[in-house]
Batch of 2 targets.
Target 1
Amino acid sequence: MMLLAAFPLYDFLFMLFAIMACGFAVGVLFSTNIVRMAFYLVISLGSTAGLFFLAGAEFVGAMQLMIYVGGTMVLLIFGVMLTAQERFISLQASGRDWILGLIAGSALLLLLLNAAFSVPKWTADRPTDTLAVDQSKTATPLGLALAGVRADKLGADEKLQPGMSGYLLPFVIVSIHLLIVLIGAAYMARTKRKQVVTNPEPTGGSAD
Amino acid sequence: MIFPLLSTITVSHYLAVGAVMFVTGVLCMATKRNALGILMGIELVLNGANINFIAFGSPYLRSESLGLDGQLIALFVIVLAAAEAAVALAIALNFYNNHSTIDVDRADELKG
């Protein structure tokens, strides 16, 4: 029991999920097979959900698993299956694109990492040393906030109270947006009876 | 860069994970020629941003965090990403139906 208490479980789990998320994201980047890319992306997004759980956002982590890994990825994999012809499975970019992209990307990565570790407030020790998952109960306050009531800010500033702090209007807007988007997507992706090929392409993409 | 990685896990470590996912997503968008690969890059970018929101909103990582606002914005990002994926997939399928290819370099009809 003493040994278990001394073991830094939080740090170990964070490192596990972080390495899986980053490693499989890099796998998505460097894999050339579109089916493998989809599978690596599933693992990367699932590990991200683990990171959310560790940060105490258990409702968002569950939504990440259900919407992203369960919904969006099924959509993507269906897209891959519907368009998976032999010549589109592994399309390669040219070497010049890769070199330019890697130079710009590593410069951006260095900049972001430097910024992440350079603010002293962000590298200060965290206030509690417990596993956040034990105590997090965020589903009810999140639902109330989406309905326009901020249960977590009841004692807050008076000026923020009337209507300023809830998320009811964004919630309604995003609902209508989702409805319209789904109707539009179904309209655009419908099968056409007669397929008109105006410009027949030669097989095999050129590399440049 | 190795030294801070060995200390206690803080917000900066979450930000580092988010930065790696963001950069890989941007590189995916830049180098993939398959339209669905570009879509996967967009998903990676949105997830990197979401990690940052969650980290700044976590009361277990910072004493003065964003609170619930970070998680709420992350939820909105997830919903909008789902909507965006649906529309982008519909566009990709439409493109595939009309041009019988999924290579974005072939989408050059508007090129002058």
Note: The longest helix of chain A spans residues 58-82.
Target 2
Amino acid sequence: MNFIVNILSLAIPFSVALLIASLGEMFNQRAGIFNLGCEGVMAMGAFLGMLIPYSIGQGGPTPGVYNFIGILVAMGVGALFGLFFGFVVVTFRAPQGIAGIGLQMFGVGTAGTLFRHFVGGTQSVPGIDNINIPVLSKIPILGPVFFSHNVLVYLAFLFVPVAWYILFKTPWGLKVRAVGTNPRAADSIGIQVNKVRFQALAVGGALAGLAGAYLSLCQAKMFSDEIIAGRGFIAVALVYFGHWSPGKIMWGALLFSFAQALQLAIQGQGINFPYEFAVMLPYVMVIVVLAFNRKSQLLGPTALGKPFNREKRT
Amino acid sequence: MTRTFKITYKVTIIILAILAAMMIGAIILLTIGADVLKTYSVILFEPLKTTLQLSEVLIRAIPLTIIALGISVAYRSGIINIGAEGQMAMGILGTTAITLLFPELPKPVLLPMAVLAGAVCGGLWGFIPGVLKAKLQVSELLSTVMLNYIAAQFYTFFLRGPMLDPAESSLGGSGTPQSMRLSKNIWLDRLPGTRLHAGIFFAIFLAIIIYLLLWKTSTGMKMRAAGASARAARYGGISVTWYLVIAMVISGAFAGMAGAIEIAGVHRRAIEGITGGYGFSGIVVALFGGLHPAGIIPASFFFGLLIVGADMTQRMVGVPANMVNVLQGVIILVIVATKMVLADPYLMEKVWRKYQKLTNPPKEVEA
């Protein structure tokens, strides 16, 4: 019993980075942009998120403020990266898959370069602490699983219905879905396709930056080159898995973080099992899930990955 | 449109692209307060100053060439292989396994066998995403990345477990997980005084093979057709899925061979971190070389230069070696954007009209 409670109480905070990043990626893909550079933006977010509290907020009276500033900077720079990517794939209409790899290398490289210059080695930051919700966290089993996490965990899960509302119930969400499904039709009724795509990329980039900052501030409480460890790519896969809708993406994120927590628990239990194979588990799961989830391809935005050229006949 | 205009137009765009790439790199350099011009000159010229450094550049260029050749085959067949990193690691495992099992075999037998083992292991690692893409439409971008992480775990598992050098288990080890020093029968000859090895001829040989395969055989023609337009190729009776798988297997096998050559020539044992980004740099090299063997060889030299140069910036101007990743990422983004600009005839026409207005303004018609 204790074992299961352990896994669950680890899985929920683990899922947050995946969840936020894939919700961002969902906005990108709903607008027709396949952004494989999520990993790079997350690396930048992770670095910037810890840089501000580390360099300015060291020993300051109110570390919480600096954490907040760090998160804001991470989101802002993430949005800038998204716009930069948009400049390449929307303005210049470059192929998105390979450009995404470029953005990933650029982001990871930039984060690594700046990290070595401004921080140097492994430095931990106080980060954002878990809060035990009074009374509720005392409930056996449910308490540790649901009611003793940091504030971002609750905000992230709160964002799932918000993202759903934005995407399906607001004019902007309708525009995003329109430019990702049939940009020509959207254009004919006066939606500025490329503008909406840029907006979606900025939102997606900001969320990826936030996801990165979550990793460095709440989960690892430090930055290293391997901090993202493919979560950006898993987030992209989760969007397919979650059929481009926030609710299903949330379950996907929970499933993958459960696999990750299980792997850590197995290591912790000292079960005689090569831990390398346990580490592989989430990555193998991505491939299996993609392979046996073929229906998802039919549900995707039809203009996904296709640049829009207003002047060209189709 | 005059011919001179067309050439000037294209050259101008390429120069602008290079400037854009260097500018973006310069922004990062300025952020860390480095001397931009000095950094670029160290990266680009410092490694060329001594023979030893030059040989190090060539050593980096060998695996880059082989990997980029494989990636270009896949790319031309319409599948983007970003799993070269994992395929190379699997190739290294295959080569190491064969060499550790049969260390006594004579060199003419062992060396081809070991390289072949590397090719088979890498090819298998390329076969998986190929089949997944062909049969189940799994995005190769995601599956190859995931296989990179899986291969990295396999690699550490074998190096820390079954293949671990017995000397490492005792207290006298170097601390990094590595295999035993491989049998002398697999070592490639080196240029005396440097680490430059005979693999360079092998890389050039493979470049010729790829050129012949892609442009002089019907298989290559079909592969390129499948990549240029899958629908048209299918209409022409080409089994696109089959050629996708073949292309991925070739691509993986090349990455595997790059790993085999790398350990036979440079390290002479499998160590953690040999692949160190070659797989990703290979993508940049393939794109930079125009996906053609004749372009890939100079491109891999250029990126070998960048990698060695970036190592030196750490010492000489205090710029972290990670800068090379920044440049590679920027170069990919700039190349793909530039390609689209160059391929856009409408834009060229627009510029041509503007140019004509400037040079000979329209005469006013007198009534």
Note: The radius of gyration of chain A is 20 Å.
